[in-house]
Every structure is written in C-alpha cells, then in structure tokens.
Amino acid sequence: MNSRRTLKAASAIREVVSSAILTELRDPRVRDVTVTFVEVASDMRNAKVHVSIMGDEKKQDLCMHGLRNARGFLQQKVGKRIDTRYVPRIEFVLDQGVKNSFRVAAILDEVLPKNSDEADATDETLDELESGTVPEE
After folding, report:
1. Are strands 89-94 and 46-53 parallel, antiparallel or unpaired?
2. How far apart are CA 17 and CA 76, in angstroms?
3. In a 3-state reduction of DSSP, which class is residue 136?
C-alpha cells in the first residue's frame, strides 16, 4: 500500500519530469513524450517514470535512449524540487496503454455492429497512431 508521502512524491516527480522534458530538454530524440504516471518505491530511492511516446517502434526506441541519457539531468531537477534524504533514481518505462486502448477499440468495432462511417474513422485513427501522426479532432 502506498503511503501519502510516496503518492505526493510521485506527483511531484511527475510534474517536474514532464515540465523539464517539455521545456528544458534540448535532445532532438526526445519528442512527443507524455509522462503518464510515476511509481515511487517505499524507501524513496527508486522511481519508475512511465512514458507514452507517439510514433512507430523505431522512434520509441530512439526516444527512450534519449530519455535514459537525460536521466542525470532530470534527477537533478527532481532533487531541487523534493526535499528527501536521497534523490530517487529514475528509471523510464514505456507505457503502451494508449496504443492498447486503440487496439481494443478496433477489436470491439469488429465484433459489435456499428455504423460504417464511425468504423472507418476508428480504423483511420488506429492507422495514424501506428504511423506516428496525431489525429486531428
């Protein structure tokens, strides 16, 4: 069970890492990244940062490599923000939740009867997600 302290630390780490990736990180490999959630160990020494990356598998691998290289910089930012004895060691984990939800939606569209126009739009959205383009709404 997570304590209130670890939940607050996870929230602070998520905020710091996501804003640093968005505004301060200058690595061209790190693009289209969303920090989905953070898991902090009970001893506050390790933090798993779950990220969602838009694009194909090659782009995701390249972006994860860039994030791993920027880990020290991001840990420094976290250390300035949270006041703990140890700065948590950051580990990045690729979160496939968004892509999986689109696959589930596509499977449900195949199984459930639906209007053909809506099914075509879902297929296009899934194709755009796999190709790395962001669908316009």
Report:
1. parallel
2. 10
3. coil
Pair 29, 63: CB distance under 8 Å = yes
Name the token pair of 42.
């009970």
Q: For 84, list phi and psi in degrees, rounded to 5.
A: -135, 165
Distance CA 96, CA 82 (A): 28
Mean pLDDT of 101-114: 83
Q: Which CATH superfamily is domain 4-95 in?
A: K homology (KH) domain (3.30.300.20)
Nearest-CA neighbor of 94 among 54, 50, 59, 126? Answer: 50
* pTM greater than the 0.90 cutoff: no
Q: Which residues on neighbouring strands pair with residue 53, listed in sequence order?
A: 33
Angstrom distance (rounded) from CA 126 to CA 76: 37
pLDDT tens digit string along 30-65?
Answer: 999 999 999 999 999 999 999 999 888 999 999 999
Q: Which of 136, 74, 75, 125 is nearest to 103 (CA)?
A: 125
